[in-house]
Amino acid sequence: MSIEKIEARMNADIWKAIAQKELDLSCLDKETQTALIETVTTAALRGLDQGIDETIGNSRSAAAALLDDDKEDILWEGRPFLSMTRYYIITDERIRITEGLLGKTYENVELVRIQDVDYSQTMSERLLKIGDINIRSHDTSHPSIVLENVKSPTDVYEILRRAVLAARKKHNFSYREEM
Q1: Contact at 8 Å (CB) between 108 and 122?
Q2: Same domain? 71 vs 157
Q3: What is the Cα–Cα distance from 106 to 100, expressed in whole angstroms?
Q4: Do residues 142 and 163 share a domain?
């Protein structure tokens, strides 16, 4: 379910709860009422996301143990907003995507194979400070990957962009564009 749908459902639930409790909001104009409900929804979603972080636990030490070969450094790690089953790690060599709760699937894209990176945010994603990172690569199994609902997408985009440039430089790798 998309963030917009979750927000809309939550807004509707809050309005319904207000009606059921017979709370009188008539002293507020309609604009203020709407702003209040949207603020409550945003705060509730952020609180829920933080709760998921605490429930899942901090797996940074587990990720560091996997990469204890002193060759690959973790530049960023995170998960999509409100997700319990998907996890992203960007290292100085590749992007690792892990998905699943009991059964796991793993995707890896080498940074030198990445051609282009950009990011996008809808209006509701901007309010929640999340966005999507779009990656196009020469990887035949995954030519296009989207890191969905990433917190602070501008920062993650910059980390990834610089990592791609550094990996290309490190391996003397470049792409030639044809016109």
Answers
A1: no
A2: yes
A3: 9
A4: yes
Q: Looking at the structure, tell me whether residues 86 and 46 fall in a common domain.
A: no
Supply the pLDDT for residue 98.
93
| Any domain includes 178 | no
With beta carbons less than 8 A apart as the criterion, state whether 89 and 148 touch.
no
Query: Measured between alpha carbons, how far apart are the two ends of the chain, in Å?
Result: 40
Q: Where are the beta strands (DSSP E) in the chain?
A: 74-78, 86-91, 94-99, 105-110, 114-120, 130-137, 144-151
Q: Which residues pair with 88 in a beta bridge?
A: 78, 97
* pTM of the predicted protein model: 0.68
Same domain? For 154 and 93 the reply is yes
**Whole-angstrom distance, CA of residue 152 vs CA of residue 164:** 19
Question: On the CB side of 49, how many CA atoms lie within 13 Å of its CA?
Answer: 20
Q: What pLDDT score was predicted for residue 68?
A: 52
- Report the DSSP beta bridge partners of residue 119: 133
> Three-state DSSP class for 154?
helix
